[in-house]
Design goal:
Cofactor: heme
Shape: globular
Helix content: 10-25%
InterPro entries: Cyt_P450, Cyt_P450_CS, Cyt_P450_E_grp-I, Cyt_P450_sf, Cytochrome_P450_fam2
Oligomer: single chain
Strand order of the largest sheet: 1-4
Family: Belongs to the cytochrome P450 family.
Order of helices and strands: EEEEHHEEEE
Protein name: Cytochrome P450 2C42-like
Largest sheet: 2 strands, antiparallel
Distance between the termini: 32 Å
Keywords: Heme, Iron, Metal-binding, Monooxygenase, Oxidoreductase
Length: about 120
């Protein structure tokens, strides 16, 4: 969930004037899909997060739970729940590619989710 913020004081951000009191809603999807940060962001490439020894490389470019002193207080619980959820899902189902490469266009609102995908029971 992305919580809105309010600017405490006036300032400039990327050339834009931000008056005090302005409501700001972070767009983490835009950051994660920025080609100046990630080459080919629309391409699924787990190797961009794995070093030569096959170990996960932590990156400050990945911000699914926000940043700073007001980051998501439920991050640890969310990670554990996601692990359990996907472990159970992958025990029971094979997630297969469709006939064509998946379309990652989605609907952005409070969350961004893909329009369609296919799941087949094991």
């Amino acid at each position: 969930m992305l919580l809105k913020r309010t600017a405490d004081h006036s300032g400039k951000l990327m050339g834009y004037d931000i008056p005090a009191g302005t409501t700001i809603i972070p767009n983490f999807h835009a950051v994660h899909m920025d080609p100046t940060i990630w080459p080919e962001p629309e391409k699924f490439d787990p190797y961009r997060h794995i070093d030569k020894e096959g170990k996960f490389v932590h990156s400050h470019k990945i911000i699914p739970f926000s940043l700073g002193p007001r980051f998501c207080p439920g991050e640890q619980l969310a990670r554990v729940e996601a692990y359990i959820y996907f472990a159970k899902l992958l025990q029971k189902y094979k997630i297969l590619p469709g006939d064509q490469p998946p379309n990652i266009d989605g609907i952005t609102s409070v969350v961004h989710f893909p329009k369609t995908f296919r799941i087949e029971q094991r």
